[in-house]
Write a structure and sequence with these properties.
The complex is a heterodimer of chains A (about 240) and B (about 325). Chain A is of the alpha+beta class. Chain A is built from nine helices and eleven strands. Chain B has a domain of about 210 residues: Up-down Bundle (Formate dehydrogenase/DMSO reductase fold).
Amino acid sequence: MTQLALVIDLNVCVGCHACVTSCKEWNTSGVAGYLSDDRPYGEDPTGTFFNRVQTFEVGEYPHCETVHFPKSCLHCEDPPCVPVCPTGASYKRPEDGIVLVDYDKCIGCKYCSWACPYGVREIDTHQKVMKKCTLCIDRIYDEALPESERKPACVLACPTSARLFGDIHDPDADVSVAIREEGGYALMPEWGTKPANHYLPRRKTRIRIHEDELVRADNPLKKEHERPVGPVREQTLDDVTSW
Amino acid sequence: MHPAFSVIFLTTLIGAGQGLFLALYSGEWFVHSRSGLPYSGEFYVRGSALSMGLLIAGLFASFFHLGRPERAWRSAAQWKTSWLSREVIVLPIVIVLVALYGTAHYFASTPDIAPPHIRREGTLWIGGATTAAVLALFLCTGMIYACIRFLQEWATPLTVFNYTLLGSASGFTLATALAQQYAAELTRYYGMWAVVVTLVALAMRTASLIRNTRIRRKSSLQTATGVKHQRITQRSQGLMGGSFNTREFFPGASPTRFQQLMWSFLVLVFPVPILLIIAGLFTEMAGFFAAAFLAQYLGLLAERWFFFAQANHPQNLYYQTMG
């Protein structure tokens, strides 16, 4: 079983919103029609986005950190939004685990958005159907693109490579290794939705140095209370032997 | 959650329609079991018509909730998993069965069609099937909300009981008003049961109010972001204006308005109709029962508004601060 997903590294995300704009640009230009974008430069802008970058402050100044937190559909392995859909427009693809909405079947009842604890489904106010991240399904399988570009738009746009894309069920995939070795976690595990997207935590690279590592404890000279004498005049062992 | 008027009208109207049918059918059994009481066919015919009218009005209101109402027929597809889909199937079945029930009574009250014992048995059988469908509809409507486990205010059997009891209470109150016009011998029966059902509904609604003040939230900013720190503050939700997330999931009313609506429904749904019904039973004056139903229905609109506004969606954790 394949389960495509994103792994988002909060350690390197700088909150530049490149993934947001790249996602919007790609997904508003596809065959599924545009994404609403009303009054973008007006007083009360609003629109449909598949991906948002939020910012949280952890701790209190001066002991605080800013965490930029990209959030899009997590493509849950047990998605609560799918069984509630009355028409079957909301579904999970068995072949790659992507949760999708069939825009031609959706009646816009918004029930799936109520049933998503993460708030990643947004109704399109013009097309009146529910929309959400497709993992750029119209891109990742497009054989007209070079293989290196068959990735979601947000992943390609990320300047710090904070976004990894792959099959989390393949133990050798980059995403699986990252989850396994870098402490990948799921959001709101309390609801048992088993999100496929994972997040890598903030982590500092520090070396722990103990004092005895700075001072050579078993220095034989020190032990026998001998001090090195001045420069040696005669030949040393190194001068007369060769390797 | 943001209360949607389409859903408020849908649930209160079909609730009253279903309750009215349950009242009609229980009244019919009451008459059936007491040999002394006369059979007022017109009462059941008009009652069924009114119940159908309420159900159809509710169905009509539900279409305003849909972005694409022209595709509404598709919503019957996923009955295996979706309570909404089940409701969509059961509601028309109830409407048809109530129509059949009314029609059966119409023929039963026309003397030259069938001998009395046969026609009376027939309406009871149809009514039995309709009762099952009505109860199934209450279950579906309640479960639509109760099955969303992270909307903790809704995720309780009390939701289903409240939908059933509040709908039944308004139905029995309406039946009392109707009986005064068309079946005076049943007025006292309906009046008393309307008071009883309203009191039971009060107990159940109070229980859910108390339960909801004691909810321990399972989700927090810590679980939502996965950052283990006692103090996390949102600085930006990633947008400068509003979005679907800020409009759909917040009550959109001040805490004062919230309290006002809670108290107005607690007054209008329970004590006011009870007092009006008791006054009507003692004075036997026209108008008291109708006023009781109107007050209760208005109160139920407030109750349903409150039901939605009170529900706290975990997605709101991600949408605390604009900036």
